[in-house]
Amino acid sequence: MADGNELEGASLPEGIEVDETSAYFGITDSSDLINRLAETDRLNGLGEFLSITGDLLLKQSTFDFETAATRLEVEGGEIYWLLSGPFGMLSWTDPIRSFLGQEDSMGNAGGPDPGLAATEKDALEAFNDPFRLLKMLAIGHVCGGLQELDQYLANFESWLQDVPGNKVRFLALHQQISSVLRETQGGGDASSLSSLTGGPVTKASVVAPEGDQTVEAKPEPEPEPEPEPEPEPEPEPEPEPEPEPEPMPIAAPVIEPEPEPTPAPAPVVEPMPVPEPEPAAPEVSIASAFDTPLNPQEVREAFDDMDVNQDGVISEEEFRSSTVISKLPEEIQQQMFERIDLNKDQVIQYDEFTAAAEENTNAPFLAPKRAPVAQPVRRPIQSTPQPAPQTMTQAAPQAMAPSTSSAGRLRTGVPGVQHVLQTGIFCGSCNIGVEYHWRICPICGARL
Q: In terms of DSSP bridges, do strands 203-204 and 314-315 run parallel, antiparallel, or are they unpaired?
């Protein structure tokens, strides 16, 4: 390379000032078009340039420098000079570069990283491509001529005054440009960019200038899919170690079987009594307070015993203080009194007392639920030889000895009926016979 501002093998044109890069691209002489575009204003210069190259920008994904230079009758390097000089495409989007934290066209440092998403950053970065900007302006020129081109330039420059505030507009414009280019590169018409015009969308066909051959539409090639990574070879399994030889089995000593013992006779177990179904709710009555039903005479005696003041009725206090009832829990006493007092006059008449004494339930009030854990201990019944049948002689009926009831009165027994439970289980407090599934003694109220 030669010293100074000249490049070896390059000849700078006369009439315009170009930089070394333009000379490197082959500028030798300045054409009449270049001189005219250098002297006119930016709007008219862009309009004349886009009227010649509009179909090259919109129908092909890559700008054809060779065809454009032939139509413009310029050198390829002069097109680069137009973009960097009169048109100002290289420095137009410096505010976007500064917003993205990049150096501008003059090498000045940008601002802080705005922290945008990758898709937003790529969309804004696309405006730094000068040919992307030319495509945007070509859409306006094809659809509306110089008037719409002027509107595109004015609105886009106003957005550049505040890039952060107009970020959403830039992103929407990027989407519209991409959509229009997909349509034109597929052979379709160009649609105006409503983001820049603010008006209705108009359409126009993309054609070559009169006298020039129309270029073939060439869409952007689809990116090749990334090759799938080759699967890593699976590691070869390590050989399993050979199993150690099993030791020779030792013969087990022969043990003579013991003589089987003579089986003892199986004990005969009495079947468990089937528990009676539990009532939905316990009955509360006078009859449930005694271990046997009361006859009419005993009902009269029990009523007179409770009627302490002999006024013909039993008050609640007299009822609770009686010998039988006072042994019950207070809650049970209250339930019994309220159940017997049918007319709810707070006293018990004789007819109410009689009706309560006649009640007989399958589950007495004082018989609690079956205990879940305790089980009766039963002894096996030993089989005994049956005696030889003998001629039965009917014995004269004997009068049963009168028994003393739990209420302290004498009762006449019934022949053949036991009035004492034969379970062999007794209350620890009053020593009466009780059922094995009871939890509360019906006489003294103690817990069993």
A: unpaired
